[in-house]
Specification:
Largest sheet: 7 strands, mixed
Radius of gyration: 17 Å
Order of helices and strands: EEHHEHEHEHHHHEHEH
Structural class: alpha/beta
Strand order of the largest sheet: 1-3-2-4-5-6-7
Number of strands: 7
Number of domains: 1
Strand content: 15-25%
CATH class: Alpha Beta
CATH superfamily: Alpha/Beta hydrolase fold, catalytic domain
Number of helices: 10
CATH architecture: 3-Layer(aba) Sandwich
Helix content: 40-55%
Shape: globular
Oligomer: single chain
């Protein structure tokens, strides 16, 4: 596990938790400098995705390591945690488990998929070979980059950075991360005194995700944006500026 601290020394403490098959350097590249101007950041890279020979074991193992870091370094309490995609599962677990305290849990347009063991195994058997096929050689990487650009309307340099990020991690860590995320469930109607839950809702993902947010958390604050999944992190100012403004408002509320 890697915990890098940076940014404003006297700013509110905000933990950044990256998504599937990502490190924070790639996931938050487009907004990291602006977040550093306002917040004291704790940037996390999980086992298996931290540039060492560790392997991602499962979601709860990593959650416990995050909890331990907050407990030992911040007396068990920080101002906020911002998750991107899979990183939102960690935000949810940190709130649900009540081992540490967040004043603000911020969810960056997650899908919050959950399933049983058989379905998770079948999905993993499909997705992991597919991912390895996408990045297996230079020709496949180039094709994957074009698909990312087309589907997510992603700038060329962002797509290149993501493909290179995907290519550096072991398939064992990818498989364990994807599989265990599906099996790490959230309860319904989670409510923790003193913790406010905020969602960045990417409208183009569809209303079923909006329903999930309201199912798992009691009275969450939801901000709607007319974008695709995590498009604000892909280098587009028209998405990044209003979302960053919303994050500031969440943290001040």
């Amino acid at each position: 596990m890697q915990f890098d601290e940076m940014g404003k020394s006297d700013g509110k403490i905000l933990m950044l938790l990256p998504g599937t098959c990502m490190n924070y350097q790639t996931n938050f590249a487009a907004v990291l400098d602006r977040l550093k101007e306002k917040y004291h950041l704790i940037c996390v890279n999980y086992d298996g995705f931290d540039g060492t020979d560790t392997v991602f074991k499962d979601m709860i193992d990593v959650t416990e390591k995050i909890e331990k870091y907050i407990a030992e370094n911040y007396n068990g309490k920080i101002d906020g945690a911002l998750g991107s995609s899979l990183g939102c599962s960690f935000v949810g677990q940190l709130i649900q488990r009540r081992k540490i305290h967040l004043d603000h849990g911020i969810f960056g347009s997650p899908d919050l998929d959950q399933s049983g063991k058989l379905a998770a195994k079948l999905q993993s058997m499909l997705v992991v070979p597919m991912l390895s096929g996408f990045i297996g050689n230079e020709k496949k990487r180039a094709k994957t980059k074009e698909k990312l650009k087309k589907f997510f309307e992603m700038p060329d340099d962002t797509a290149e950075r993501m493909v290179e990020c995907f290519a550096q991690f072991s398939l064992e860590s990818v498989k364990n991360q994807y599989y265990s995320d599906l099996l790490t469930w959230l309860n319904d109607d989670i409510s923790v005194e003193g913790t406010k839950v905020h969602f960045i809702y990417a409208k183009k993902m569809g209303e079923k995700y909006l329903k999930r947010y309201r199912k798992y958390f009691h009275d969450p604050e939801i901000r709607e944006f007319n974008m695709q999944h995590e498009q604000w992190l892909l280098g587009y100012e028209e998405y990044a500026i209003p979302v960053l403004k919303a994050i500031d408002e969440f943290m001040e509320s």
